[in-house]
Amino acid sequence: xxxxxxxxxxxxxxxxxxxxxxxxxxxxxxxxxxxxxxxxxxxxxxxxxxxxxxxxxxxxxxxxxxxxxxxxxxxxxxxxxxxxxxxxxxxxxxxxxxxxxxxxxxxxxxxxxxxxxxxxxxxxxxxxxxxxxxxxxxxxxxxxxxxxxxxxxxxxxxxxxxxxxxxxxxxxxxxxxxxxxxxxxxxxxxxxxxxxxxxxxxxxxxxxxxxxxxxxxxxxxxxxxxxxxxxxxxxxxxxxxxxxxxxxxxxxxxxxxxxxxxxxxxxxxxxxx
Amino acid sequence: xxxxxxxxxxxxxxxxxxxxxxxxxxxxxxxxxxxxxxxxxxxxxxxxxxxxxxxxxxxxxxxxxxxxxxxxxxxxxxxxxxxxxxxxxxxxxxxxxxxxxxxxxxxxxxxxxxxxxxxxxxxxxxxxxxxxxxxxxxxxxxxxxxxxxxxxxxxxxxxxxxxxxxxxxxxxxxxxxxxxxxxxxxxxxxxxxxxxxxxxxxxxxxxxxxxxxxxxxxxxxxxxxxxxxxxxxxxxxxxxxxxxxxxxxxxxxxxxxxxxxxxxxxxxxxxxxxxxx
Amino acid sequence: xxxxxxxxxxxxxxxxxxxxxxxxxxxxxxxxxxxxxxxxxxxxxxxxxxxxxxxxxxxxxxxxxxxxxxxxxxxxxxxxxxxxxxxxxxxxxxxxxxxxxxxxxxxxxxxxxxxxxxxxxxxxxxxxxxxxxxxxxxxxxxxxxxxxxxxxxxxxxxxxxxxxxxxxxxxxxxxxxxxxxxxxxxxxxxxxxxxxxxxxxxxxxxxxxxxxxxxxxxxxxxxxxxxxxxxxxxxxxxxxxxxxxxxxxxxxxxxxxxxxxxxxxxxxxxxxxxxxxxxxxxxxxxxxxxxxxxxxxxxxxxxxxxxxxxx
Lengths: 273, 277, 311
Fold this sequence. Notes:
- The structure holds three protein chains of three kinds.
- By secondary structure, chain B is an alpha/beta fold.
- Chain B is built from eight helices and ten strands.
- In chain B, the strands form two sheets. Chain B has a six-stranded mixed β-sheet, sandwiched between helices.
- By secondary structure, chain C is mainly α.
- Chain C has helices at residues 20-48, 83-89, 100-135, 137-151, 155-165, 169-193, 198-206, 211-246, 255-264, 270-298, and strands at residues 52-54, 64-66.
- At the A-C interface, helix 1, helix 4, helix 5, helix 7 and helix 8 of A face helix 1, helix 4, helix 5, helix 8 and helix 9 of C.
């Protein structure tokens, strides 16, 4: 009969790592070049430390301030994780409910889309009042609200964007709503939810750190940055920013890993098609 | 053919839309299909053949008329899962393997795991795709995906198979091969088949009877018996009788294209009711 | 993959202008939700806020003397002022005779201008970079991974640093907001410029069309849907970036200063912070709607297509 497409070649672990390095080489080179250029700029133009520190100065500050930076990071990370947990869970639940009831969808979706463009961070002082500046929950809630709308919007989109033919198929099997939900809508929605999840990690980090700019215990990353500025130790502030970036990247990679575990078919298909 | 018909349509019509701008898709359909029949519905685009198929499957409700499937009203037959359906696109779920896709209807009715796996394997063997049970849908060609869809449609041993231009997206050669495949499966399972198609050669090759439909509003204008031998193969397409039948269907189609209504003389519309073969 | 054949639909009806009623439904839905929130707000205060004491409630002559059965600190008049108190505070005048509404609108406009400037720069730079990337493979391999990584970094958190480091406050804000716009625009433009039908490309080549023609007539039109999605993200991001960027700087004319001042004097006049936040929200939604309106005009008549562009 007809011939099937050949299976995508399975790579050995070594080949996989090797190709990964090759993919990243030009980008890594550019980044290294950028750092070198930056350092050169600072040295040649003798830019004052408190205006723009060079990468070497930042690295030195990083090493010197590691304990303080580390405790600040752990404090902020708990806020981020709590915010993610609350915001993503609430967003998915709201998304499921909204997708189910058309009446809800027609009123909630426009609201969610509009609310998504509100600068939630402007609410940070209000959250600080409600939950207390010293309470990590205040920043966690900012992070949660930031995550909530993108997750909800994408969950709804994923649940309702099913092929009409698939719905007809299920109807021909006299499958009930719950069956259709379980077997068709949920798997269809997973890619959408993961897209939102990737965005959510960045948003939660922003929410927590910037929320801390508005007021938080000294041991937080945001306040560390603010106070370092106050003492004109700008290189310390930048070192803290490096930690913030590291948090963002790590969380993003964790989501990518989770995605590979939960949806192995999705990534495999993306490679072939 | 004797005995109770498997599908019986009496006075079925379908009108879409409200009072202004309503469209009559089907009008005055009477049709009787007996057990083991292979009936093709053929007609110009927009004649309502897909709509008619979906009315039989209780996916669309008729505006007037009675639909009896397997001795019950169509809605009951759907709830009892008396039929399997194959669409123009395979509609396989990307997140399931081929085997799991075939198991879908069995899961829905709550079949225990071992039974599901056994049945699905049997169906895949029937369509000769056992070797690909662990593959993913996108790894298969279009024709193979449709075969999986057919296997899935047969998983509940339905009395009727409803097929809506299932081979429309395939090239001619694959299509002819799939036709032979389908006949083989039909003979093995003895299922009654209602098959919607655009292709005259395909309709004649596959069917025991061909229902020719007119342009909108769709009516069944001719019901042509295909008296080719039951065992059909590649050579059948080159016999004289085959060409005669193809011509007969083609002329029936042309006759049906003449505009209907406006109080003019009744067009060539034959009340096709239980014409014994 | 297999295209989804539409299930049998009734024959196409004349799709004329969408009735105004259908168009206004999202706005209506939005207002309904806002109304529900307002009701819930006051209901919470009725149940667990501070006592309600009015001789003439909102000027209607009805006297109210209500003691809520419960007490939740978050619902008191400081933390959650009455909706009408917030509305009223917009019209209180300051020492210079300006109403708060005027002050906030002025500050909002100031922030909006900076955000718009940054947005424009970011969009242009982003598009330019995308064009370069699409045409030169080496640049793509070197830059795109960095772009992807940078999307995972909370850029806004760096905003204050940049603003202070650059000394010129408005320049800092412009840099920050253009940064926030340029990344989504570049990524969207790259996807968009590659999203055309390969057969259209073959057609152009058969006309011996040069790279520039292909750019103008094929790639750019193909990317408009994606670009508008990025513009929506950029519009929202610019407003937030502008506000956050203003925070640590010496800028006094913008919304951030209004928010900070209102924060300081919160216990004296809690409504002011809420008023500032409302104005910031309106700004954000307004910027978003503006892009949506422009998109409707530009993409009018284009085939509605839900795939990809909205991801």
